[in-house]
Amino acid sequence: MDVPLKELAKLRAITEGTLKGRNPSIEGSLDSLLQTLYQVKNELETDSMSKDRLVLLAQTVEAKKKEIDEKQKEIYNAIVRLGKALDKAFTQPLPSYDPLFMSDDAKASLDSTVAVHFLRTGQFSAAEMFIQESGVTIDAEIRNKFEELHRILTALRMQDIDPALEWCSKNRQFLQSKSSPLEFYLHRSQFIRLLLACEAPYQPALSYANTVLRNYYTEHTTEFRRLLACFTYLPKLEHSPYADLASSTVHTDLESLFATEYCASLGMSRQAPLKVVGDIGAGGALARIEKARTVMKEKKSEWSQSDELPIEITLAPENRYHSIFACPVSKEQSTEQNPPMMMVCGHVITKDSLHKLSKVNGRVKCPYCPTESVQTSALRIYF
Ligand SMILES: [Zn+2]
């Protein structure tokens, strides 16, 4: 991937005119030409123009034109080089699929997912442009909510916890219902900042602990005690058993925690869906599925099940959302049509396996213990 990235960086530098010894950017050339023209216009208004001046102007225009032509050539060559580097890096053609997102409903859902992604990740101008061009309707309320989210996140980045605290107090019931530590962590961050900024006898930090942190003692007793014990190790907290509290992550982690809680309050997932799709797909899953497809085609065994993957794709822990049951008899993953069933002995196999093991009279002998039971007494298990 190194070569295409290098070529891309070069293309950008050439376009922006930041490469030494090369022509300035096209915008730069046009701007300087415009400036010359304005200058001449001003001169014309106040004074008559000499012939020499006009000749010079014609030369300047010609020179700028040449500069821009050369620049365009430079950019074109850089694009060609990048294209070649990409062809070299990606020898496999992109997999071809049946056209996706063709129905109006599917197209609208995709557009709205992309627009919400831009809003959620704080790319408001890109979102506006996308909404305008795609014609998708996004609830004004959602836009306002995400603008508020990013206003609060920006404040947090500037070490201002007040807007976040204000949101917490408005949504206290929601936060309490899911035992969120957000509010306490905001105060913890503030307390540590005070603690590390003040000198003995640490009055500002002490009074913050006494007036604010004290309210969280019952819910966060252990952490509260750890915070107060920090005083004994000052001013060398980073070389103490409480070094983790001196780390900058105590403050920076607040942003993602806040964003998670904020999105949860809107009924949205913990992670941005498009990011998850991109991370998993581009993280190797797509390439592995494509390889499996090719191998299966060569072996003349087509992959037919639409709701099942042909191979196991290992996901990062943060992308595992629910438990998966694999039948110990058939080794297949359970599905909605073939769910896990628990027999009276407590052993679980999938429905299909249960059917296969049943005798004509409906009795099943558990494959894992001596118990025999009736097929109909098995219970479906929900994960
Ligand atoms: Zn059993």
From TrEMBL:
ZnF (RING-Gid-type) residues: 327-369
Any Pfam family: zf-RING_UBOX
Molecular function as annotated in GO: ubiquitin protein ligase activity; zinc ion binding
Localization per Swiss-Prot or TrEMBL: Cytoplasm
Highest taxon, organism lineage: Eukaryota
Residue intervals of the CTLH domain: 145-202
Keywords of this entry: Cytoplasm, Metal-binding, Zinc, Zinc-finger
GO biological process: proteasome-mediated ubiquitin-dependent protein catabolic process
GO CC terms: cytoplasm; GID complex; nucleus
Keyword match Cytoplasm: yes
All copies of domain RING-Gid-type, residue ranges: 327-369
Sequence similarity: Belongs to the RMD5/GID2 family.
Protein name (Swiss-Prot/TrEMBL): GID complex catalytic subunit 2
Organism: Pisolithus microcarpus 441
Classification lineage: Eukaryota, Fungi, Dikarya, Basidiomycota, Agaricomycotina
